[in-house]
Amino acid sequence: RRWSRSSHRSAQCSSSKLTLFSPSKINLFLRVMRRREDGYHDLASLFHVIDLGDSMDFTPLPGSGSDELTCNIADIPTDGSNLVIKALNLFRERTGSQQRFRVHLDKRVPHGAGLGGGSANAATTLWAANELTGRPATNEQLLDWSGAIGSDISVFFSRGAAYCTGRGEIVEDVEPPLPLTTPLLLVKPPVGLATPAVFKALDLERRSKADPLELLRGLGARGAIEPELCVNDLEQPAFDVLPSLAELKQRLTDDSAGRFSAVFMTGSGSTIVCAGSDEVPPFLGQPDCADLFVTSARLIAREAGAWYQPSKALA
Ligand code: C5P
Question: Whose CA is closest to 129, among 42, 238, 226, 9?
Fold first, then answer.
């Protein structure tokens, strides 16, 4: 029965194409609570979706061949190791759909950046596949399923501000703790960081002792980012893996003349978030900084489905 429903839908939508905005995220704080038996770590982190994002085109393909993925960046794998393909396989497995897709990924979010760009692509793919096959799944099901292919995909089914626990896949919507207009400047060195390497370098003895619920309350109560609230237990191990990142954070903190209210790393790096202003400090214009990725960004929140709509113009 499932099969005939989905094949009927695939015939219906074979001429349709969806172009969607695939956002990214920052972690306003990230506490690592414990190392687990399965090799993962339990986290307690405040994620916030942001308006830096990729553009993705989805076209249903006739027949039962393979999915086709293309990308504007040559070194992004487009085979079964890409989370987009994993998301399509997961969607078909859970819904019984047979629909194949052509997907073009126009990447703006850097890779190995702690911004969850690849995870957002997977979430956007689940959302698109569901739309283009007549919505066999609810948003809650897509959120539940997404944990099977990665730890920080689920957050992209939240409303934008989410307190995440477990591996990161247990998502609780919270009121946006900060005004969405809070200016952010993101600065990333050309070198990215691989999440497993950063977790491996983590020394649990050197973690923060801050209570994550206190951090959450503190941000909400004060409505402004303050450095002592933007704790990231992955910062020290990331600096151990990539010492120049510690220098970059120090320079952004020192050279910014009080411009930023807080400077902190997101996720497992290597992006440093500067909050409170998106004015570019003069030192970033010097030749030794020419290869840094620098962009301004804003926090975003949504009503159901909104950030996946083709509403975001990508300049
Ligand atoms: O789940 P995901 O594939 O994004 O995780 C990549 C790697 O990061 C895991 O294999 C693990 O080494 C590490 N990780 C972890 N604890 C988490 C999330 C990720 O140790 N909560």
Answer: 9
Residue nearest to atom 13 of ligand 1 (CA): 196
Given a contact cutoff of 8 angstroms between Cβ atoms, the answer to whether 200 and 238 are in contact is no
Task: Tell how strand 100-106 and strand 68-71 pair up.
Answer: parallel
Q: Is 20:128 a contact under the CB 8 Å cutoff? A: yes
Measured in angstroms, how far is the CA atom of residue 86 from the centroid of ligand 1? 16
Report the b/e string of 155-194 with b at 16+ CB within 10 A: bbbbbbbbbbbbbbbbbeebebbbeeebbbbbbbbeebbe
> What phi-psi label fits residue 10: left (phi over 0), alpha (psi between -120 and 50 degrees) or beta?
alpha
**Mind listing the pLDDT tens digit for each residue in 284-298?**
999 999 999 999 999
The kind and range of the H/E element at 21 are strand 18-35
For the chain, counts of helices (H) and of strands (E): 8, 10
ipTM of the complex: 0.96
Express each pLDDT in 186-195 by its tens digit. Answer: 999 999 999 9
